[in-house]
Design brief:
10 helices; 6-stranded parallel β-sheet
């Protein structure tokens, strides 16, 4: 890490696309459900919703597809498909279980800061058998201002009782990186649906392909 390891007091993770390999699943069922209803959700529209809360994503979809788009019906069907898939299996991103085990060994506390609802977050993290690793959980239900506002990460630091500047944040979305950086945390981007760009490189201390790369850096530091 480019900062002194002794200054690292906690690690905060986003959930979707960082811990849980869910973004591809969300995209698949969103496209499928829209098609069933006679509409098309473009890749560009879907990507614009990544990292946003449900209401923020809804506003973008409604603005793009118009008043004729039956959003409530779409949302009900889409959520049902995702829930069924998640009941069957909640896939983890590569290296997640290993890095959480390493942080436990190093006695570095961890938290989750996600835009998902508390119900969804607790379900996914429990089904993936990793909820027990986290000392704090901040969801979209817990904040007034969602990402890219820094409130989710500031609240996570508060719950962990550490200063934000002593926290490392892992994010996959642009809005998530903006949120973590705005909170004063050291941010690492692990791209999932969204690629890094010049802005992200300026706001992060590193862009990594997966958590195995992060593990190597911890072991080196």
């Amino acid at each position: 890490m480019p900062f002194n390891p002794e200054d690292l007091h906690a690690v905060v993770f986003d959930m979707d696309g960082v811990l849980i390999d869910s973004e591809t699943l969300y995209k698949k069922h969103a496209h499928e459900t829209a098609k069933e209803l006679g509409f098309v959700i473009s890749d560009e529209l879907h990507l614009s919703t990544v990292g946003l809360t449900g209401p923020m994503g809804e506003a973008l979809v409604r603005a793009e597809l118009g008043d004729e788009f039956p959003f409530e019906e779409f949302d009900h069907i889409w959520r049902g498909k995702v829930a069924a898939a998640m009941m069957d299996h909640v896939p983890l991103k590569p290296g997640v279980r290993e890095i959480l085990t390493l942080l436990d060994t190093l006695e570095i506390p961890t938290a989750v800061a996600t835009s998902s609802t508390r119900e969804a977050a607790e379900h996914h993290l429990t089904r993936a058998d990793i909820l027990q690793h986290f000392s704090a959980l901040v969801t979209g239900d817990d904040v007034e201002n969602s990402k890219p506002h820094p409130e989710p990460f500031l609240l996570a630091a508060e719950k962990l009782e550490v200063d934000p500047e002593n926290c490392l944040a892992f994010e996959d979305s642009h809005n998530g990186i903006r949120s973590a950086h705005g909170a004063g945390m050291q941010a690492i981007m692990v791209p999932d649906m969204l690629a890094s760009n010049e802005e992200m490189e300026a706001l992060t201390i590193a862009v990594m392909k997966d958590m195995f790369e992060a593990i190597k850096r911890f072991e080196q530091g």
